């Protein structure tokens, strides 16, 4: 239907890069829906121009605009600025139903069937499954709902300091009222959860439709060698599966990078792509990173307890899988 759209938000050029890849992934999997990108005032003109080439509509949202209903609430809670920006998606009243997707998500197959769900449909958060993760959710634009959300946000704040806390408090019956509003986890597969419950990922991971790069380190924080098809950097801080990370960079380098070069021209911009001199077949893609000094078993244990496992090295998915298979046998 013409009035149903996928929506994302980019408040910086880095997140705009994520939105570009997300948009391309939706297009590549033949979505029949329109795409809308909400952008903040700090997104540069060249990045906006690239988004215009991928999205049907690019709309500027600014919570500091005095004409905005959020402005007065901002005076009380300036710490929730980015949260207010995301809530603007409810003002898209030209459309009847929308699916919001964070800019750090990647679509792996067609997901148009999400529009059969009702507000507020979302997948459980791996950290607290009675809460939904706000990286992917189905909603109906409404100025009335927007106003109520702004009021709730300004009066009650957010229990996690962001939009997820606000939305879970507002849609507080999500966990108990209607099971049809619980999206399967494959529509918002957390890269962190892959490692916390590896057997389930082995069983169901091949059905994943959306991967969500949660955490401080994002795909665009790495660099990609276009010749050797390898991703480099951030070896100790990443919680994402190497194959998904490679898919993100492959799509960026093949479909987004040229668009950025067209718009930036002679202006400098950092793409994260480098040209190498070693060719590796696509079927042999792998992650590479500088070697790390050996770590004692006690140090490894402390790292695990602090949530700092070496997911790209000794604690990689392949190594964990081998250890698990050995244990089960």
Automatic annotation (TrEMBL):
The gene is gyg1a. Glycogenin participates in the glycogen biosynthetic process along with glycogen synthase and glycogen branching enzyme. It catalyzes the formation of a short alpha (1,4)-glucosyl chain covalently attached via a glucose 1-O-tyrosyl linkage to internal tyrosine residues and these chains act as primers for the elongation reaction catalyzed by glycogen synthase. Its main location: cytoplasm. Its EC number is 2.4.1.186. Its cofactor is Mn(2+). Belongs to the glycosyltransferase 8 family. Glycogenin subfamily. This is glycogenin glucosyltransferase. It catalyses: [1,4-alpha-D-glucosyl](n)-L-tyrosyl-[glycogenin] + UDP-alpha-D-glucose = [1,4-alpha-D-glucosyl](n+1)-L-tyrosyl-[glycogenin] + UDP + H(+); L-tyrosyl-[glycogenin] + UDP-alpha-D-glucose = alpha-D-glucosyl-L-tyrosyl-[glycogenin] + UDP + H(+). GO terms for molecular function: glycogenin glucosyltransferase activity; glycosyltransferase activity; metal ion binding. The lineage of its organism: Eukaryota, Metazoa, Chordata, Craniata, Vertebrata. Pfam families: Glyco_transf_8. GO terms for cellular component: cytoplasm. It is found in: Cytoplasm. SUPFAM superfamilies: Nucleotide-diphospho-sugar transferases. Pathway: Glycan biosynthesis; glycogen biosynthesis. It comes from the Eukaryota. It is an enzyme of class 2 (transferase). One of its GO terms (biological process) is glycogen biosynthetic process. Keywords: Cytoplasm, Glycogen biosynthesis, Glycoprotein, Manganese, Metal-binding, Transferase.
